[in-house]
Design goal:
By secondary structure, this protein is an alpha/beta fold. Helices cover 45% and strands 15% of the residues. The protein is built from 17 helices and twelve strands.
């Protein structure tokens, strides 16, 4: 039975609507106009793309990150005769995330920039579809406290964490007593078999050419370094309340099994599907029901094999040194996960802009972790200050590498 009747459509706010997750969310919503209504959209700079979304879905609000982009969108909306109210700035994004008429928030703003709006949605008790892993990587226990205080329902959208969620018992109170470990799968990205000696010559376009998934450039680079998996380990620790040692990563190049849960009796439950983000998005929107996602179904007759590799085999330890930083920062001082996230964002941006080599991303992360000793964050201001401090330290490392 659906949670809401036809007369009670879920009103959805999509934060980061012009990115790949936002676009896929709108594609799923378009398949179910009887169940979902787009109430608000937000984007950073893509005015024309946002305009097209406003024309199609006619949201009550559209928010651009800057005043200038907001003015451009407002003028274009007026020319089209749209009634959408255009706002701008970070505070406006928080306002739509906590708006009393919003039922569901898709949090798809990339990086630490999405933390404040995620907190706003959590405190307002929304159904929070978390595609922004940084909310947990940076926010940690502080973010979980906001979820608990606000009574929000937190549903993971990362394909791996959605797979784990779908493989767990319905009663969250029994997870700890039944789980042996969580097994996150990783494709290995475009350089799974690349000689590490070739890494200094890797270009941004090569790093962004993922063999299985269509993603934005930042997360594509994270997949190529496997830092995305490091961040997912951290996210899984907070999402599912397990100990770091209970999280394992296995390389599965076909990206058919999205993740697994091994139980105390050593039985394993896995979630399978095509590598299409519309599957976890549809599940998050409709949970506890399921609706059509628009994704292609698996054809088992065409699946020649499914293979798995240890992260310690085939030279992967040398190829992906950043992966093991996840377990290190989870055992380190509170706030260390936020330092790692900030350093990695700076390092990836520096690589994409041609300032550092691909193989130097890990060096930036390591040197920043060594330079910043965090104090336990107790507020959003503390988290943002730690993020800013870590970025400054990482930028100093980048400048040193550029000399």
């Amino acid at each position: 039975m659906s949670e809401q009747t036809e007369l009670e459509k879920q009103r959805v706010a999509i934060l980061g609507s012009t990115g790949s997750i936002g676009v896929s969310t709108l594609e799923v919503i378009a398949l179910h106009p009887d169940r979902f209504e787009v109430f608000a959209l937000s984007a950073a700079t893509q005015v024309d793309k946002m305009l097209a979304q406003c024309v199609q879905f006619k949201p009550a609000f559209a928010v651009m990150a800057s005043v200038e982009h907001g003015r451009q969108l407002e003028q274009k909306c007026q020319e089209k005769g749209l009634l959408t109210r255009v706002l701008s700035g970070p505070k406006a994004i928080e306002e739509i995330a906590e708006h009393e008429r919003v039922d569901t928030v898709m949090a798809a703003i990339v990086g630490a920039a999405g933390l404040a709006s995620c907190l706003a949605a959590a405190r307002a008790g929304k159904r929070l579809l978390l595609a922004n892993k940084e909310a947990l990587v940076v926010g940690g226990d502080y973010f979980l406290q906001a979820v608990a205080t606000g009574g929000a329902k937190l549903l993971p959208i990362d394909s791996e964490h959605s797979a784990v969620f779908q493989s767990l018992p319905d009663d969250a109170n029994t997870w700890a007593s039944q789980i042996d470990k969580i097994i996150l799968t990783a494709s290995g990205g475009p350089f799974r078999r690349r000689d590490p000696a070739d890494f200094p010559g890797i270009t941004p376009d090569q790093a962004c050419a993922h063999p299985n998934w269509v993603m934005g450039r930042k997360i594509s680079v994270d997949s190529a370094t496997m830092m995305n998996k490091a961040l997912e380990i951290i996210e899984a620790r907070y999402l599912f309340g397990v100990q770091p040692k209970q999280i394992e990563v296995v390389i599965h190049p076909q990206s058919v099994i999205h993740s697994m849960v091994q139980y105390r009796d050593h039985s394993v439950i896995a979630q399978l599907g095509t590598p299409d983000m519309k599957v976890p998005i549809a599940y998050g929107l409709s949970w506890p029901d399921r609706v059509t996602s628009g994704a292609t179904a698996l054809d088992f007759s065409r699946m020649a094999d499914m293979t798995f590799e240890s992260i310690d085999s085939h030279g992967h330890g040398e190829r992906f040194p950043g992966l093991k930083l996840a377990w290190s920062v989870l055992e380190a001082a509170p706030g260390s996960t936020a330092v790692l996230n900030a350093a990695n964002e700076v390092a990836v941006a520096a690589f994409l802009s041609g300032k550092i080599r691909f193989d130097q991303i890990h060096a930036v992360n390591m040197d920043t972790l060594g330079a910043v000793i965090p104090a336990p964050p107790g507020s959003l201001e503390d988290l943002l200050n730690l993020d800013a401090l870590s970025r400054c330290a990482a930028e100093r490392v980048v400048r040193a590498l550029c000399r």
